[in-house]
Amino acid sequence: MKKHIKGLVSLALCGAMATGMFTGCGASAKGKGSNGKVELTLFTGKIETIDSMNDIIDDFNASQDRIKVTQEYQKDASSVIKVKFAANEAPDIMTTYEQEYADSGKYMDLSGQKQWWDRLNPEMKDMCTDVGTGKQYRVCTNTTNAGFFYNKEILKSVGYDKFPETYDEFHDMLTKIKDKGITPWFIFGSEAWHLGHLIEFIPHGYIKQKYGTIDAKKAMLDNDKDKLQYGDPNGAMATFAKNLVQLKDEGLINKDVLTATSDNCVQDFVNGKTAMLSNGMWVLSSLQEADPKIASKIGFAAYPSYMEDMKPVVLNAEDSGYCISANTKHKKECIEFLNYLFKAKNQKKYCEAAGSPSAFKDVDAKWAPENIVKQVKDVTENSVNIGYTNEKPAGFSGDDAGRLVQNLLDGQYSPEKFAKEYEDAWNAGIK
C-alpha cells in the first residue's frame, strides 16, 4: 500500500507539471535525457494497474541502458490528453483513444506490427480496427466486461436468486433492499469517468443493440441524428436520466453520490453496506484486496432493459489499449517497449493484477476466481454484447459526458433538459 501511495504522489506531481507548463514528464519524452537515454512517457488513466505497470517498466528499464520509460497517471485522462494534443505535447505512448484523433492522424498506424496481431484473438483485432480506414491505430492486451457486480447473499435475502432483466423489476428489487437498511446501488459520482461509463453502457447500449455494432459505429461517426436521437424527450437518453433521477429521489442510490469515490464504493460493498455497483472487471482486484474472501459472494449481471424494444446488455470489449503518438521522435523505441510489455510472462502478471482476461492467445492467466469466470461467461452468452463508444467526438469526452450526469444528479437539469444538453454537447464536440 505504501508503494501504491508513493507512486500516486509521484504521478500526481508529474501530472501537475504536464498539465501546467508542459515541462517535466511530458517534455522529457521529446528527446534524450541528461543521462543520454531516450526517455519515453506512457500516459494512462488506469489507476488499478499503476503498481503492476510500474513493476514491468522498472524491469524493462533495468534490462537495457538505452531507453527509460516513465508512467504518467491522470485521473481525468481523457480531458488532460486533449490539452496535451492541443499544446503539441502528446505523450509517446498512451492508453487514451479518441476517434477524432485517429481521423486527424495523431496516432501511429500499427497495422504492420505482425508480431502483435498474430498473437491476438481475431475478435479483439476487429475491435481495434478503425471502421473508416480498416487500419489499427491501437492494440489491446485484454478483454473486459462491465455490468452490475452484486452481493448474492443480499439479493437472496430479499427473494432474488436471479438478477432482474427489466427496469421495473430492477426498481422493485432496489426498493426491497432499501427496506432492509442497505444502500441498493452505490454510484461514485465524484469521478466523472464512472458516470460517463453509465452513458456508454446504458443509453448508448440501447443504440448499439438496436442498430448493431457496425451500423451504430457509423451512425456515431456520421452523427446520424435520425438514429442517435440523443435529444428526444422520449428517447433512450432522456429515459435513462428519468430513471436515474427517480432512483436518487427515492433513496435507491447512495445519498453522497456526488462526493463518493471508487474507494468509498469498494469499502461499502465488501462491508455489506451496499448491494451492488456498476463497473468493469478491473474492479475485482480492488474488491479482493479489500476483502480476500469476497469473491464467493460476488454475482455479475447485465444492465436490465429499460426501453420497450430493449434486451439486457453487457459490455464485452477490448481493454488496455495502447497507441503511439504519430509525432513521437522515438517510434522504434516505443515499439521496443511494447514488445517487452506484451511478453507472455508480463501479460500474465498484468492480467492477474487487473482482474481482466488476456486478449493474447498465448497468455494463460488466472484473472478471477472460477465462480466469477463462469458467471461472466453465462451473462455474455445470454445478453446482448456491446463495445465501448470509441466513436464519440474528441471534443466531447467520456469525462465531459460524466460531468453532465453530475449536473443532472445535482438537480440542474430535468431529464428532458439533460438529453438536450447531451445532444448539444455531442454536436459541438464534432464541430
What portion of residues belong to β-strands? 5-15%
CATH fold-level topology of the largest domain: D-Maltodextrin-Binding Protein, domain 2
What coarse outline follows from CA principal-axis ratios?
globular
Kindly report the name of the CATH homologous superfamily of the largest domain.
Periplasmic binding protein-like II
State the major sheet.
Answer: 9 strands, mixed
**Unreliable segments of 5+ consecutive residues:** 1-29
Tell me the domain tally. Answer: 2
Distance between the termini: 44 Å
| CATH class group of the largest domain | Alpha Beta
Tell me the helix content.
40-55%
Question: What is the quaternary state of this protein?
Answer: single chain
Number of helices: 21
- Alpha-beta content class: alpha/beta
From the 3D coordinates, which CATH architecture of the largest domain would you assign?
A: 3-Layer(aba) Sandwich
| Number of strand elements | 9
Protein architecture, described:
With 431 residues, this protein is an alpha/beta fold. It folds into 2 domains: 190 residues, Periplasmic binding protein-like II (D-Maltodextrin-Binding Protein, domain 2); 230 residues, D-Maltodextrin-Binding Protein, domain 2, CATH 3.40.190. Helices cover 48% and strands 14% of the residues. It is built from 21 helices and 9 strands. Strands 1, 2, 3, 4, 5, 6, 7, 8 and 9 form a 9-stranded mixed beta sheet that branches. α10 packs parallel to α11, α11 runs antiparallel to α14 and α15 crosses α16. The termini are far apart.
